[in-house]
Amino acid sequence: MKKTFASVLLALVFVTPSFAQETPTEREAARDVVKQINALSQSLGVQAMVAKLSAPDKGRDEVIARVKQLMQSELLPMSDWITQHPEIGFQETQAVAKLTAYLQAHDFEVTMPVAGLATAFIAKYKRGAPGPNLGVILEYDALRGTKGAFHGDQHSAQGPVGMAAAVAIAEFLTRTHTPGTVTVYGCPGEEMMPPEAKTVMMEAGVFKGADIIVRSHSFATTSRSAAGFGTCCMNIDGVKYTFYGAPAHQLTAWNGRNALEAVIKLFNNIDSVRSNIRPEARIQGVITEGGAAPNVVPDKTSADFYIRYPDGVYLEQVAQWVDDAARAAALATGTKVKIDHYGKDADGISLATLEELAFAYMKQFGATGVEPEPGKPKGFEETGSVSSQIPGIGVSAKSSNFSNHTYGMEADALKEIGQEGFLIDAETMAAILYDYALHPELRDAVKTEFTRIQGLFGEYQSALQKAYPKPEIAEPK
Question: Which of 213, 193, 161, 205 has the alpha carbon at shortest distance from 350?
Answer without folding.
Answer: 213
